[in-house]
Amino acid sequence: MTSVTAGHGGLKPLNGIKIEVAGQTGCGTSGGDGKSGCGSAAGAADLPAEIWEKVKNHPCYSEEAHHHYARMHVAVAPACNIQCNYCNRKYDCSNESRPGVVSQKLSPEQAAKKVLAVASAIPQMTVLGIAGPGDALANPKKTFDTFRMLQEQAPDIKLCLSTNGLALPDFVDEIVKYNIDHVTITINMVDPDVGAKIYPWIFYNHKRIHGREAAEILTERQMLGLEMLTARGVLTKINSVLIPGVNDRHLIDVNKAVKARGAFLHNIMPLISEAEHGTVFGLTGQRGPTAQELKEVQDACIGGANLMRHCRQCRADAVGLLGEDRSSEFTIEQVESMNVVYDLDKRRLYQQKVEAQREAQATAKTAALAAQGEDDGMKCLVAVATKGQGKVNEHFGHAREFQIYEVSAGGATFIGHRRVDHYCQGGWGEDEVLPSIVTAINDCHAVLVAKIGACPRDELKQAGIEPVDRYAHEFIEQAALGWFLDYRARIATGEIAHRPRGDAAIRQGAYLAA
Amino acid sequence: MAYKIVSSSCTGCSACEPECPNQAIVEKNGTFLIKPEKCTECIGHFDDPQCVAACPVDKTVIIDNAYPRYAAA
């Protein structure tokens, strides 16, 4: 995986430039299956220069960028034009993190002010998205007013939006006008019979339309909107919610359909459904997928549209790096009282430092790969505690999530993340939290941390997960590959035996501890 | 009669507001209300009352029996 070449399959002409889509030949990564190719995991060498320029600082479009750059969502779009069975518009809890949830609605003016305040306080914040809490394009005036103000006041910030696609064909011109070069469309089906199980109704052309007919219109509008964006050179990410028994295998067809229409990325995410959310799926007991079920569908889609695996299913008002949420530092009241000076030079200077870090990370990965032996196909998952910068730099007890990497002699690839509750509360380990952390990373052979207490260390060992702190503050891929080399050496000497791990649970619902 | 919005179940999402052909819907303290004197129940405009069709929460936009049925001129 050290030398990445542009050996892509399908080429799709796109507004004069060529966008390369992962084809059956893989996407520049050498070695076994299971490695995501270009798209979110791609680096500078995998993509045409124009595309790399668009995605390199976008945490949602580049897995590598998501360790370094932050995004924020502003909740200016409360209205929605469809009803989904996994959404309940009445629910808001500040400790809850999922799309469609928001604590404060903002006017476009308030939103612009908030963006300037956050951009000044967090210079690595490079992307502003409008993702609801309803649908960005069901609130076109508020959405585009916000974009217009930001284009004038903060020209270096990338603008993006997220939509269910129903109104999309009507606004493609407007999207292009505001230089929005990233659009996310939520597409859960391409078969109206599947759609009828997900969407009870849509509001379209002044009518509420139900069932199969509604899904038929929705899928038609989604495909048309996607084609129109592709034709105009706008990068698209397709979000799909994996609903076991409803659309799990069907998502492979969705993947093919969106790839054929030029989608840049496909993000398959697990259904979040808890009875307490009051959603239809929550109340009918529709369960979400396990980690293995999610990975199986994601892996089955490799070779189709590029997959995104680092999605954190953020709230519509999230602020910060993916996986962290600093929105509580920027409420309307706090922002109103801030004296914001938007300093473009200061932001650029900071971002230059970030770029130097990224280069160092890539160099470390190359060196660690050179030390590996022959790739015989053996793979392990490792969990990593990190708070950004691409390093193993978080204390086990402070981690709110673990990033999961698949390691082989051919490379270390990010494949997902697992949310957990804090183990450490005020210096004391919470005994009842530990089993839930073990469940969340039960498919991993090791957990890489900056530091870990004696108690959780013993418990993890008992569960068969090796706690590792000797790579503290090293870059993640380097640390994971270093551990893997050592692990194999210990197997070779007979010190330990390699055993397969089980499945893991995907975290549902609100954080139990703030 | 006119339609009215049950403010305790209104999420304040604003989906109804731009759909009203009579500009009868206004925001107050974070939720929305219908000015009964302006409401025509969409008669003469659309087949379905737009606020009812657009509202994401069931039984939130309901008939207000305190007002006489609107008759199109």
Characterise the protein shown here.
The complex is a heterodimer of chains A (514) and B (73). Chain A is α/β, with parallel strands linked by helices and 514 residues long. Chain A folds into two domains: 66-334, Aldolase class I (TIM Barrel), CATH 3.20.20.70; 376-514, Dinitrogenase iron-molybdenum cofactor biosynthesis domain (Nucleotidyltransferase, domain 5). Chain A is 31% helix and 17% strand. Chain A has helices at residues 49-55, 108-121, 140-153, 168-177, 192-195, 211-231, 250-260, 280-284, 291-300, 332-336, 344-370, 434-440, 454-462, 476-492, and strands at 11-14, 17-20, 70-73, 82-83, 125-130, 158-163, 182-186, 201-204, 207-210, 235-242, 265-270, 307-308, 319-320, 380-384, 401-408, 411-419, 424-425, 428-429, 446-448, 466-468. Chain A has an eight-stranded mixed β-sheet. A five-stranded mixed β-sheet of chain A has the order 16-15-14-19-20. Chain A starts with 10 loop residues before the first strand and ends in a 22-residue tail after the last helix. By secondary structure, chain B is mainly β. Chain B has a single domain, classed as 2-Layer Sandwich (Alpha-Beta Plaits). Chain B has one helix and four strands, in the order E-E-E-H-E. In chain B, the strands form two sheets. In chain B, strands 1-4 form a two-stranded antiparallel ribbon. The longest helix of chain B is centred in the C-terminal third of the chain and has 5 residues, at 50-54. Chain B is globular and about 30 Å long. The mean pLDDT of chain B is 90.
Q: Notable features of this structure?
A:
heterodimer, A: 514 residues, alpha/beta, TIM Barrel, Nucleotidyltransferase, domain 5, 2 domains, 8-stranded mixed beta sheet, 5-stranded mixed beta sheet, 14 helices, 20 strands, 17% strand, globular, disordered N terminus, B: 73 residues, mainly beta, Alpha-Beta Plaits, two-stranded antiparallel sheet, two-stranded antiparallel ribbon, 1 helix, 7% helix
Widest sheet of chain A: strand order?
Answer: 12-11-10-7-6-5-3-13
Multimerization status: heterodimer
Uncertain stretches of 5 or more adjacent residues of chain B: none
CATH architecture of the largest domain in chain A: Alpha-Beta Barrel
Radius of gyration of chain A: 22 Å
Domain tally of chain A? 2
Predict the CATH topology of the largest domain in chain A: TIM Barrel
Write down the overall geometry of chain B: globular
| Secondary-structure element series of chain B | EEEHE
The helical percent of chain B reads under 10%
CATH class of the largest domain in chain A: Alpha Beta
Radius of gyration of chain B: 11 Å
